[in-house]
C-alpha cells in the first residue's frame, strides 16, 4: 500500500516548509528510518526520515519549493506499484505553493473569501500577527495557501515588495542601517515576546560552591582524554545534575496547559545553542538516566548539527526544562526568558574564584551563580527555592549523583 510523503509540521506554528534537497530520487529504494529529504523551517534545516521501506515515486516538488504543511509531495510504494492518482498541486518556480486543482467546496470558499462583496479574506493567525508587525496592508496581499489563504510567507514577500518600490523608505536613514531578520531571528523574536507578555515570570538567584564540581570534572576529563572520549564540559554536568534533581521536583518539569498543570513523565533537557542568526534549543532526552559521558557525546552532535543548520526534527522536540549557560562568555549571572510551554529555565553563570565566609573566616572558593526563571502559574516561590537548594547540594557533592 502506497504511503504519502507530506511536508511535515516540525513546529506548532509552522505553516510552510522549504524543500532544501532530496536525498533520494524518483525510483530509488528507501529503507525505513533513512534520510529522505531536508526541509527548512523557521527554526532550522532538518533531515526528514522515511516512514517505511519501499521505492520513491510520484515526486511532486523540487528543491527550493515552499510547500504548505500537510501537502503530499511524493509517495513510497512497493516494488511494481505505482503512485496513486490524485488531484495534484503544482508548485510555482518562485517557491510559492499554488493550488491548481481543488475540491468544489474549497473553490467555492475561496471565491466567496476573495469576492469584491467585502467578505473577509482567510488568513492564518501567524500571518495576521506578522502583518501587524510589518505594517502590511492585507488588501494588497494575494494568498498562496489552500483556498487563497494568506500565509506568513505571503506577508514577508509583500513587505519586501513594498520596501523595494520606487519612493519606498530607504533601508537606512541618517547613516543608520536596518538589518533584516532571518527566519530563525524572527521566530526567536516572536517566541520571546509571546513568553514575556503572556507568562508570569519570577526569578530566584542562588550562589553555589562549585569547587567539588570542578574537581569531579577534572577527573572525568582526564579519564576521557586517556580513553580518547568526548571532552566533558560544565554544561554536561549541569544537564545531568539538574535532570536528576528534577525527579524530586516535578513541578519544575511541567508545563501550563488550558486543562491545568501537565507533569511530564520524561526529563528532557533543552540546551540553548547560539547559531549565526539566533538561538535554538536542542534536546537531551531522558537526561536523568543518561551518563555524563553520553550527555557530552549527544551535546556535541547536537551543537555540530545546529551550527551547520542540519538539525534533525527530533533534535529540537520535546524539551521539558531548559538550561542556558553563558559561563564560557565570562558572564557572572543573567536572567533567561522561559521557552513556552515549559515551566522554567535555568541560567548558569561563569565559575570564578571568590572570597566567601567559611565557618566565619574568609576563604577562596570556586563559585557560580544560578538564576531560575519560573512560570508562577506552575511554580511558586517555595517550590523554586527548594529545587535550587537541592541542585546546590548536588553540585556540592556531584559524586553522589553521577558517575
What does this structure look like?
Helix 6 crosses helix 7. A hairpin with a 2-residue loop joins strand 16 and strand 17. Helix content is 28%, strand content 27%. The strands form 6 sheets. Strands 13, 16, 17, 18, 19, 20 and 21 form a 7-stranded mixed sheet that branches. Strands 1-8-6-3 form a 4-stranded antiparallel sheet, with no helix packed on it. With 403 residues, it is of the alpha+beta class. The protein has 3 domains: 3-96, OB fold (Dihydrolipoamide Acetyltransferase, E2P) (Beta Barrel); 104-180, Dihydrolipoamide Transferase (Irregular), CATH 4.10.320.10; 187-400, Chloramphenicol acetyltransferase-like domain (Chloramphenicol Acetyltransferase, 2-Layer Sandwich), CATH 3.30.559.10. The chain is built from 8 helices and 21 strands. The longest helix is centred in the middle third of the chain and has 16 residues, at 183-198.
Provide a concise account of the structure shown.
The chain is of the alpha+beta class.
Number of DSSP helical runs: 8
State the share of residues found in helices, binned by percent.
25-40%
Find the count of extended strands (DSSP E, 2+ residues).
21
Mean pLDDT: 82
The figure for the number of domains is 3
Main pleated-sheet profile: 7 strands, mixed
* Structural class based on helices, strands and sheet pairing: alpha+beta
Low-confidence stretches: 87-119, 164-172
Radius of gyration: 25 Å
Class of the largest domain, according to the CATH hierarchy? Answer: Alpha Beta
Proportion in β-strands? 25-35%
CATH topology of the largest domain, by name, is Chloramphenicol Acetyltransferase
CATH level 4 superfamily of the largest domain: Chloramphenicol acetyltransferase-like domain
Measure the end-to-end span.
49 Å
Q: What series of H and E elements makes up the topology?
A: EEEEEEEEEEHHHEEHEHHEEEEHEEEEH
CATH architecture verdict of the largest domain = 2-Layer Sandwich
Q: What would you call the shape?
A: globular
